[in-house]
Design a protein that fits this description.
Bound molecules: glycine, manganese (II) ion
CATH superfamily of the largest domain: Creatinase/methionine aminopeptidase superfamily
CATH architecture of the largest domain: Alpha-Beta Complex
Radius of gyration: 23 Å
Number of strands: 15
Strand content: 15-25%
Helix content: 25-40%
Shape: globular
Structural class: alpha+beta
Number of helices: 12
CATH class of the largest domain: Alpha Beta
CATH topology of the largest domain: Creatine Amidinohydrolase
Distance between the termini: 13 Å
Number of domains: 2
Length: 442
């Protein structure tokens, strides 16, 4: 890959120092001496000898850019070098994890093991004072994951504040995604089917389904009205009107999550995309310290209701459209979510580093972020407008239906919908838009 390589040797040591400090604080909360992190073990498919794709414990990926090391462990003890217990099985059937190499290796004591159970000998003898993070099936002997809530609450909350190293990872992920989006757009313009566009995307990203941070959403025409459409039809439709692509990329365990929508021709749908894009840029500009994310979400509903009115879909005021739930029939998901090691990253609702939940605003059940923005947070901003048969049928049964122009709405069903999604870093000053920067760079 020819992505510009960030200065990882310089950025990594302070990242590790930050994680060490956070771990010490988390352990103190729980009265523990050691943090053990199990990378995880494969999950077998029912009555089969095949495994599901391996997905590493995000706590493990936080420490090192190793995403495919099932059976490995980290042992973190405040005041000591972290220890990596690294499973390289003797196995000529499968690819075994590569020998540890790169900028991160010198920061760990490393013990190589050849079978998973051998990890036990490298973990603390007495597990009573260990916080052990992992899935149940990762247990080796009496070292069984206990996932203390106090530790998880602290670490998840802190994970919202990305280190400069993490932001560098996310910039690279965004660049890989932006380049692949360009290839997908070219495939769409060439008349490819969803499946062909999907293949063009993966080829440009050099990432396959298992590498990508989530399943690509590649939707032509009315398929764009299915929010998480993953059909990948093999033949193109007779008439291609629109294209919605929500596709990301991974880099060293970090995710990009990018959506763009295109119209085949200039005209009414193209104009609606342009209007939504302008509104979306406005919301991105409000990713600033002290901005309440749920308030930004409600603000977005008012702006989108204004667009629905301007473009002739509804006749009521913005206020009534939002209060009566009409805006939610067209924009039925949240404005966005935290992003990082997971595409829907943790702690979007967390009240503090001791846990607790910040409730969603009533009437907005799918919002995934209720916190106030602070420097270091990365969120998506992804407003959308859709023509979803199920939700439109529900709207038609309400009294507000009389102030909807149904002919206009029906004429747009063939386009499916629009979503535009950027990944934005909250800083001390201007927001950093990882996605738009990446598109400019490719
Ligand atoms: N790609 C899923 C989402 O945008 O949240
Ligand atoms: Mn998203
Ligand atoms: Mn997305």
């Amino acid at each position: 890959m020819d992505h510009p390589h960030p200065d990882l040797h310089r950025l990594y040591p302070p990242h590790i120092a930050t994680l060490q400090a956070r771990t010490a604080a988390a352990l103190e909360r729980a009265g523990c001496d050691h943090l053990l992190i199990a990378a995880g073990r494969a999950h077998a498919q029912f009555l089969d000898d095949r495994d599901y794709p391996f997905c590493a414990n995000p706590h493990f990926k936080h420490w090192l850019p190793v995403t495919k090391a099932p059976g490995s462990w980290l042992v973190i003890t405040p005041g000591r070098r972290p220890k990596l217990v690294y499973l390289q099985p003797r196995d000529y059937w499968h690819v075994v994890p590569e020998a540890p190499a790169g900028y991160w290796v010198e920061h760990f004591d490393i013990a190589i093991i050849r079978d998973a159970e051998a990890a036990r000998a490298h973990l603390p003898k007495n597990t009573a004072r260990c916080a052990i993070l992992g899935e149940t099936n990762a247990a080796v002997g009496d070292a069984a994951p206990n996932n203390p809530q106090a530790v998880i609450d602290y670490l998840h909350y802190q994970r919202s504040y990305k280190t400069p190293y993490e932001l560098a990872m996310m910039r690279v992920a965004s660049k890989i995604g932006a380049r692949a989006h360009r290839a997908a757009e070219a495939a769409f313009r060439a008349g490819e089917a969803e499946f062909g566009i999907h293949i063009a995307y993966m080829a440009a990203a050099m990432q396959s389904d298992d590498d990508l941070p989530y399943s690509n959403i590649i939707a032509l025409n009315e398929h764009a009205a299915v929010l998480h459409y993953t059909g990948h039809q093999h033949a193109p439709p007779a008439h291609i009107e629109s294209f919605l692509i929500d596709a990301g990329a991974s880099f060293h365990g970090y995710a990009a999550d990018i959506t763009r929508t295109y119209a085949t021709s200039d005209g009414e749908f193209h104009a609606l995309i342009a209007a939504l894009e302008q509104a979306q840029r406005g919301f991105c500009a409000q990713v600033r310290a002290k901005q309440s994310y749920p308030e930004l979400h409600i603000h977005a509903h008012h702006v989108l209701a204004g667009l629905l009115k301007e473009h002739g879909f509804i006749r009521m005021s913005e206020e009534i459209a939002v209060e009566s739930g009409v805006s939610s029939a067209f924009f039925p998901h949240g404005l966005g979510h935290p992003l990082g090691l997971q595409v829907h990253d943790v702690a979007g609702f967390q009240a503090s580093d001791r846990g607790g939940t910040l409730a969603r605003p009533p009437g907005h059940p799918y919002l995934r972020m209720t916190r106030t923005l602070e420097p270091g947070m990365v969120v998506t901003i992804e407003p959308g407008l859709y023509f979803i048969d199920m939700l439109l049928a529900e709207l038609k049964a309400k009294s507000a239906a009389k102030d909807v122009d149904w002919n206009r709405v029906d004429a747009f069903r063939k386009y499916g919908g629009i979503r535009i999604e950027d990944n934005v870093v909250c800083t001390q000053a201007e927001p950093e838009n990882l996605t738009r920067d990446a598109f400019e760079a490719v």
